[in-house]
Amino acid sequence: MAAKRVIVTGGSGKAGHWIVKHFVEAGFDVINVDVRRPSVPQCRTVVADLTQLGQVVSAFSPHASGNRAPYDGVVHLAAIPRAHENPNDEIYRLNTLSTYNVLEACGLLGIKKAIIASSESSYGICFANKFFEPHYLPVDEAHPQLPEDTYGLSKVVNEVTAAMFHRRDGTQILSFRIGNVVCPEDYAGLKARLDHPEDRLRILWSYIDSRDLASACRLAIEKDGLGCEPVNVVSDDTSSNLPTAELIKKFLPRVKTLKRPLADRQSLVSNARLKALLGWQQEHFYPF
Ligand SMILES: NC(=O)c1ccc[n+]([C@@H]2O[C@H](COP(=O)([O-])OP(=O)(O)OC[C@H]3O[C@@H](n4cnc5c(N)ncnc54)[C@H](O)[C@@H]3O)[C@@H](O)[C@H]2O)c1
């Protein structure tokens, strides 16, 4: 049987490196579409600017490669990945237009499955002008998205864009609301800051190991019939060594609604839907 074919956008970036690696090791035929080449090449890279629809269609077309078989899916990561380090209009333009073009190209070329990188920042707490507490815990996908920043807004807009393309073309699209991506080389730096739990309050101490994010991406491309949904992609545990109850008492005292008890170091952001939809299991835990 021919290998499944997948396109990873932003495969030259931080998360992209691990996601490309995982798909290649799982036997997929992978192409990376990015404006820049990766420092460590793992597959063929097509250099393209995703804000240009013509370039996206050409890069995603099977005619762009020797292999004419259509692609099975796209993992769309390319973006400006945070607020406040670029002009706001550029964050909005690049993040929303690239996602629009990626999903438009899927419809035009008959690519049936996509994952788009949304963010837990879309809940708005991370980059809010003034810190606010979640309406309830754990934060699940029904929690209101209340961004006060353009990065979070771009992710909310992209989720609405995904719903339109799902209605129009039937594309299966999961919007992964990704927690803080932690690569193996990041753990030492994080461990050195364990005495400063306030550092990670605004991300509710969530994290996702880049290798576990990659397995979630593969499962979503392998599965059929998932429709169009937002899904939190976070670990089972927090990135703090303190018990979750202590974090809530000290840093989130006004949160009155606990939808379920959070024992030990259980995450304040729910990954229940990720597990139910994909059968995903965490393999890489915060190493204390
Ligand atoms: N890193 C995190 O903690 C985190 C958390 C939540 C969500 N996300 C989302 O995950 C995705 C990947 O994040 P990352 O940390 O790997 O970011 P990154 O900046 O390391 O990688 C992004 C890649 O996108 C490429 N890119 C940017 N503009 C492009 C364009 N116009 N055309 C083609 N390629 C373009 C860049 O060259 C880069 O290689 C982003 O969508 C980000 O918003 C990241």
Describe what you observe in this structure.
With 288 residues, the protein is of the alpha/beta class. The protein has one domain: Rossmann fold (3-Layer(aba) Sandwich). The protein has 8 helices and 9 strands. The protein has a 7-stranded parallel beta sheet with strand order 3-2-1-4-5-6-9, with helices on both faces. The chain has a two-stranded parallel ribbon with strand order 7-8. The longest helix is centred in the middle third of the chain and has 22 residues. The site of nicotinamide-adenine-dinucleotide (NAD) has 23 residues, from helix 1, helix 3 and strand 5.
Question: What labels would you give this structure?
Answer:
288 residues; alpha/beta; Rossmann fold; seven-stranded parallel sheet; two-stranded parallel ribbon; 8 helices; 15% strand; globular; binds nicotinamide-adenine-dinucleotide
**Beta-strand percent range:** 5-15%
Q: What's the tally of helices?
A: 8
Share of residues in helices: 25-40%
Report strand order across the widest sheet: 3-2-1-4-5-6-9
CATH C-level class: Alpha Beta
Tell me the name of the CATH homologous superfamily. NAD(P)-binding Rossmann-like Domain
- What is the architecture at the second tier of CATH? 3-Layer(aba) Sandwich
Total count of strands: 9
What form results from the Cα inertia axes? globular
Cα-to-Cα separation, first versus last residue: 43 Å
Determine the mean pLDDT.
96
Poorly predicted tracts of residues: none
Bound ligand species? nicotinamide-adenine-dinucleotide
Please tell me the total number of domains: 1
String of helices and strands? EHEEHEHEHEEHEHEHH
* Rg, Cα atoms, Å: 19 Å
Structural class: alpha/beta
> Could you name the CATH topology?
Rossmann fold
Major sheet summary line: 7 strands, parallel
